[in-house]
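ASSEMBLY PREDICTION REQUEST
Request ID: AP-0331
Submitted by: J.K., bench scientist
Number of chains: six
Total residues: 2040
Priority: normal
Notes: Please return the full assembly, not individual chains.
Input sequences:
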Amino acid sequence: MKKVVTLGEIMLRLSTHGFQRFVQSENVDVCYGGGEANVCVSLANYGLEARFVTKVPKHEIGQSAVNALRRFGVDTNFIARGGERLGIYFLESGASQRASKVIYDRAHSAIAEADPSDFDWQQIFKGVDWFHFTGITPALGSKATDITMEACQKAKEMGVTVSVDLNYRKKLWTPEEAENVMSQLMKYVDVCIGNEEDAEKVFGIKAGGTDVESGQIDHAAYEKVANQLIERFGFKYVASTLRESYSASDNGWSAMLCDGNKSYLSRKYDVRIVDRVGGGDSFAGGLIYGLLTEKPLQEALEFAVAASAMKHTVPGDFNLVNLDEVETLVKGDGSGRVQR
Amino acid sequence: MKKVVTLGEIMLRLSTHGFQRFVQSENVDVCYGGGEANVCVSLANYGLEARFVTKVPKHEIGQSAVNALRRFGVDTNFIARGGERLGIYFLESGASQRASKVIYDRAHSAIAEADPSDFDWQQIFKGVDWFHFTGITPALGSKATDITMEACQKAKEMGVTVSVDLNYRKKLWTPEEAENVMSQLMKYVDVCIGNEEDAEKVFGIKAGGTDVESGQIDHAAYEKVANQLIERFGFKYVASTLRESYSASDNGWSAMLCDGNKSYLSRKYDVRIVDRVGGGDSFAGGLIYGLLTEKPLQEALEFAVAASAMKHTVPGDFNLVNLDEVETLVKGDGSGRVQR
Amino acid sequence: MKKVVTLGEIMLRLSTHGFQRFVQSENVDVCYGGGEANVCVSLANYGLEARFVTKVPKHEIGQSAVNALRRFGVDTNFIARGGERLGIYFLESGASQRASKVIYDRAHSAIAEADPSDFDWQQIFKGVDWFHFTGITPALGSKATDITMEACQKAKEMGVTVSVDLNYRKKLWTPEEAENVMSQLMKYVDVCIGNEEDAEKVFGIKAGGTDVESGQIDHAAYEKVANQLIERFGFKYVASTLRESYSASDNGWSAMLCDGNKSYLSRKYDVRIVDRVGGGDSFAGGLIYGLLTEKPLQEALEFAVAASAMKHTVPGDFNLVNLDEVETLVKGDGSGRVQR
Amino acid sequence: MKKVVTLGEIMLRLSTHGFQRFVQSENVDVCYGGGEANVCVSLANYGLEARFVTKVPKHEIGQSAVNALRRFGVDTNFIARGGERLGIYFLESGASQRASKVIYDRAHSAIAEADPSDFDWQQIFKGVDWFHFTGITPALGSKATDITMEACQKAKEMGVTVSVDLNYRKKLWTPEEAENVMSQLMKYVDVCIGNEEDAEKVFGIKAGGTDVESGQIDHAAYEKVANQLIERFGFKYVASTLRESYSASDNGWSAMLCDGNKSYLSRKYDVRIVDRVGGGDSFAGGLIYGLLTEKPLQEALEFAVAASAMKHTVPGDFNLVNLDEVETLVKGDGSGRVQR
Amino acid sequence: MKKVVTLGEIMLRLSTHGFQRFVQSENVDVCYGGGEANVCVSLANYGLEARFVTKVPKHEIGQSAVNALRRFGVDTNFIARGGERLGIYFLESGASQRASKVIYDRAHSAIAEADPSDFDWQQIFKGVDWFHFTGITPALGSKATDITMEACQKAKEMGVTVSVDLNYRKKLWTPEEAENVMSQLMKYVDVCIGNEEDAEKVFGIKAGGTDVESGQIDHAAYEKVANQLIERFGFKYVASTLRESYSASDNGWSAMLCDGNKSYLSRKYDVRIVDRVGGGDSFAGGLIYGLLTEKPLQEALEFAVAASAMKHTVPGDFNLVNLDEVETLVKGDGSGRVQR
Amino acid sequence: MKKVVTLGEIMLRLSTHGFQRFVQSENVDVCYGGGEANVCVSLANYGLEARFVTKVPKHEIGQSAVNALRRFGVDTNFIARGGERLGIYFLESGASQRASKVIYDRAHSAIAEADPSDFDWQQIFKGVDWFHFTGITPALGSKATDITMEACQKAKEMGVTVSVDLNYRKKLWTPEEAENVMSQLMKYVDVCIGNEEDAEKVFGIKAGGTDVESGQIDHAAYEKVANQLIERFGFKYVASTLRESYSASDNGWSAMLCDGNKSYLSRKYDVRIVDRVGGGDSFAGGLIYGLLTEKPLQEALEFAVAASAMKHTVPGDFNLVNLDEVETLVKGDGSGRVQR
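STATUS: Completed
Returned structure:
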């Protein structure tokens, strides 16, 4: 069985019920998630050995985050314990013209203040095939940057394929800081996932054409961006989801994959949104699965986009769908007839 | 007041909240339902005297199933008590590209293992106008087949109109078993409800044309199927719902009725789905009501399809709508304006 | 800061969960609301000083209504205490072809039986810029009519701008009673909000053209109605929301404003409905805000219609959106992308 | 099977969750109950034919009250439909030193404003063995008094045993009004249930000795009261529960029965309270069952007090315990060991 | 009406349902609280003008904390806005031998990092009679110490009575740090609330005798401590609650008050615990009320201890009881009989 | 780290909320549990490597049972997949004089119909120190008996210590069947846990003295039983919990341990019950932990009884307490003071 490692933050997520606004909510749902943890759970759900690396405090909230991962079969043996707090994010689900809202309360988290000595990458990467991280992790602070760097170097050294999801977060760092750090990390990366906005914000690469709010998508423009990324960093593949935000309730969802020679465009799904948080992560999880299991590129892409279309219907950060379900959708049964 | 009897299984239904998946659910909604019970509740809601015949265990879960029926005015005096367990089904509601999922745990239920001696059909049918059953009941096992057969014979003997909803369930029997049993039962039947899939699976009648997953409907093809059914079994009417599954969230919903001479096609509703389980049963309930109260055929059909369109908006198996509400929709007010 | 007063009833609202029907609900959500209270909360949310005037019983249910208003910053110092009961309304949320249903249990409420001596309008209107009421308040009974009349007179006398939302409620009075009372009140009114149905029912003004159930809207017809209202009562502005009820789940939502010379038509929003109760009130709240802060008329109208489009996504009677959120939507970002 | 009729009001009960206070509750549990309805459900649970007579509005809230009774097997065929509203009561559950609190909102209910012509007692009492009412029903208003009087007269005339639970409610009438009406009704009564407080408030009978708040009980004093009641009205039996209120969480619970010659004192239960509303009604239900099935007096009393001790552990107004459960407790198994 | 100001932190409280442990909870109740906010709400509930001073972030979680206070009538006009986050605490309710557990996540909160310039004490104390703070506030950090110092000085200068609840929190500072800061603050204090543990930890005052865990209380020992406190700091009154922890479910609850000459010992309540968080704060609230309204000392003490006994039955941090309820309990009605 | 294996059934548990009865519950809590699974989770919580062996169906309900174990760190790698269904039990929590009630629906479960070939004991016991089973597993059917027998033999052969909890369940087999099977299994057992009732029902060993319902306990009598068990089967230790059922809400809880020479009696806890299901299993888990970590016998016993006293406060089957918490209680802090 293929083995995958992801590194990042797992946060406590507190979300209002139904479509309640923060200011009227007296009761919130508890779950745990974060970009890299979400990818890890997806891969465990597809049957791979998936290991998540982070640091959580020793108290019960930290333990609950670990338990949330163990519940879905993720290997949590290399999670460090200690630090002050678990990062938190508050989520209010939007509808129609009202956008969903996220309030972050993640500063000073255990992983943001972890030390490189908390992780023994030689041990962590033993027998591992793939390593995935996102642009969020190095953005957490200089120690987190160091940890990510060390992980990438050791992965490369040990022959582990490396993927990144650029995931630029403006509340964590400036474009300048991002470019400085991410440029160094990119030399270890084989597969890069990132949309036009990420490419522009992090690397100043801009091809024009897509107006996020208009919902119009210019595939050619994205292809140009992808090719510039490949040229600059030597990636094997560059991929991106293509979200058309009709409203907070309905989105168009498709994706592209470029290998420098050719671009692959997926089928587009019109999704009725239950919970869109983690949509991009589920795409990354699907793509890693497709590439690791050596599906042809178009198939790998279709797997990833079908998996992530389904994520939009699952509450919580994690994409709780299995291999059969994704493959059924890839084959075209999106009719939603009751499965008895 | 017209009196109706239905025979079948009532199950404990355990459904996840919101759009939660089974593997993340820590709390489930409890209700009770089953094809024939659902029809019975619809008829009680329209003001008919509706009697449900089944067998449930003597414990509180069995009693709760009886209570669920009594609550909506169903006569439960002929429900036998005993046996090991109540059948259970687990329901996970889908959305968009993710289908709803049903896990059955119905083997060894009290009704599946009931004995013909548990039911005194002479008493049960006294003063009764209509008897309805579905293809699920005889599929529960050989004793259940015997019970159904006896009920049908006695109904015919006592001049009670008989209707069936073919409802082929592949987890309960093979097409061969189904054809063998159902062919014998059909000779007692006056009104047959069944879609193309049922007709093909149970009686090998196939007219081609409708591709369930494509969402395209070929009315002429269905008409051919209906006419073959009428020819073969001498039914007075054959009817079917016509579901177009755009996704797990949105369906097109209409129906046809054939009397051997003419076909009636209903108005089509685009329904935003809250709970589609019991949609077909609510159509049967509406049609029986329409025919029993001697509405013209087109009106009976429109009543049935409007009633069942509304069912898609009601949580639970039962169609908790009354006569006025259905008739208002038949008259064309589907605008959804607040009723104050 | 501008100061606004609204006068009316605040009711206890008991609403079923999810899409449950009344007859299956074992647990209801509690909130408080009512046309004029809803307007008041909107204005407090936009940062104005908003005072609500009513009467509530001395017990804890009455106090809870007061608390609900205080929570969102409404000034409740002039709410009288006493009387027998708080009016109640039960709400069942519809979906698709099934309309939402309201059962009123509001007779004999504290405000309906309040005495003019309960309110000292000289004090209440001190330093106040705007007074708003609706056609519901005088319809509650003859004492309530007297109170409304006194409030209007005193407002006019003290130079307070007066607005009304006609809000004809057929369960409270007949068209004749309404016309008799409302005609007298209209002479104090500067800004009148009312749709064609209100205008016809209350004042017998009919321009034809809009068939509420068809969902077709005839702007010219509404303009005629507005102009007749202006002519007859000398209003400065007449405005109306224009709801297109596609179904209980989806509506088109726009509005018009006329000043006697010119008509302004807003952008139209297609809204996926979470809770449409209070939609009209949130329009009134938005319009009062726009006019009070002296926005140009088209902008005031766009503000009001955007605010009320958002209300349709917020559970409860109150429109819990703030200034920034409405203005972002006015500027055109209805894409519903997650706000991080 | 013995047949029993009870007459009275069934109310919508809205109770806060856990131990929440009214002013902090955003969600309430819904159930239906009332003194006489509670007795009726108890008797249906013991297997008798129990018919409840009242009037409820035609809307869904009224229907839900009917459904709540049907669910537990009560015959609701003689419930009149019409009137304005269902009476409501709000319940906040206390604990320890904080008492439970009830806010009534029952004025103008359908039964309070029902007309004697709504009920055909000749039909209602056909084949009936026992009729039960409480002092609450005639206290609802003069029409309700007339209805109760007519029911009592007809019951007596038709040889139906009559029982009353005095249940003095100071918010409904004064002691003078109560005495005037109740004295006339008592001549039809065979079995009277009432505690010292009732006897004193309604009939001015006072024997001294029991200080309700001290929790001390003087059995001799109560015996004197009972004997005076028997002497004055010729009752066959007089009974009373004896509650010792240690706190809102813990009570002592026993009862006495007097037949004019002898007094019977029951075992005392120390109950940990889940929901004490309906405790007295469940005693009445148990006593009627015991007397109707001709248990020896001590046994009838023990049955009643055991049944009502159990009620204190059941949420809601109704005593959802069956014959076996009560009899097991009577036999002495109050150990609370898990029943597997 | 008397005016009171309290200064401190208001935190977001997230508590598990029922008796769930943190590691099994998927849903938490949301409320807001903190020592000084709790005192402020108590005083508002008794009808005083109560103003709370703190700093909260500008986002919706901060606003919700403000709303929670406004809901119960607290004046929030002097709450500063800004900073990074609201302090959080997680609460798991214990039972029997399992203690309740609190996990604090309060570092870096807006109030802990507030600046003295955020508060204009001259304005805040205008017309104010009483100022209350606790030992938690200065423990939040050096700026918070400065703010507290400034508030105390200005209060004294403006003739405002000052009270403190020592409330030593070992996770916030060491005994040395505490003594250093608190000793300086004590010179402004008139009324000091603190138990033996506080006195020992903060000021090294130890009289021996009470073994907290044994549940035995030595009143004489406490009296000695109180007198030493009075001697050292010149307090007018020193008071303390006396908790006997039988288990997490049951406590004995009483209190003492010393004025240097005499000691007053309250009645003791055996409380069945619903939520003991905020028990001490509700005592402080009751005592301040009693002293401000010039009750005799024994009465003031009885009021405070009755109020705080009741708090143990109310979910959440706030003591949602009113004047009448506390006074009824003071008069001796703790029987918990239903209030109808 | 010590390794433990337990073998048995894991069931889906469906429990009513609060103290609701089955017949009024519309919503149930979902968890998973069973005697041997509960022991396994306890041991994982104490930090041991704990492996659970069973068979579950391939569907999501089966997977959820596995996930529930993984969540708390149990090794689920040797759980077989297949079979028809997961056993279910319904739980209604009692209070005061009303006992909790369990309805089993466990027949035909995957483990009851598993085949010995489903389990490779050589692999399962590799490096394992302790094997635990209960009398429930062999009672599930003849194949389950065979599986248990094979496991015991292989454990003995591989030097694994074997413990049993007799756990006689009268719904699964007769005393004769039990004695026949259990006698054979006992020869592999080192440590036997069983109360007097088990000993009498399974092995006909009766010493008289304890009347379960009276709540009186005769330690000498139990000692005699233990010694007879040791004599007959050569157990190293025999232990039993000693439950005094005061009511469904309050129990006395202690335990005894005999080694043939001496009897050890634990401290007794008076427990306020939150959830007593799994109380005995948590004792077994604590005892195994104590013995495996070579605590002196009295200490091992105190650990076990403290752990299981705490279980009574935790909702669900699993004892979610950790080592520190149990040891704190053993040391005597049962005061229930808040842990901050």
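REVIEWER COMMENTS: The radius of gyration of chain D is 19 Å.
SIGN-OFF: pending second reviewer
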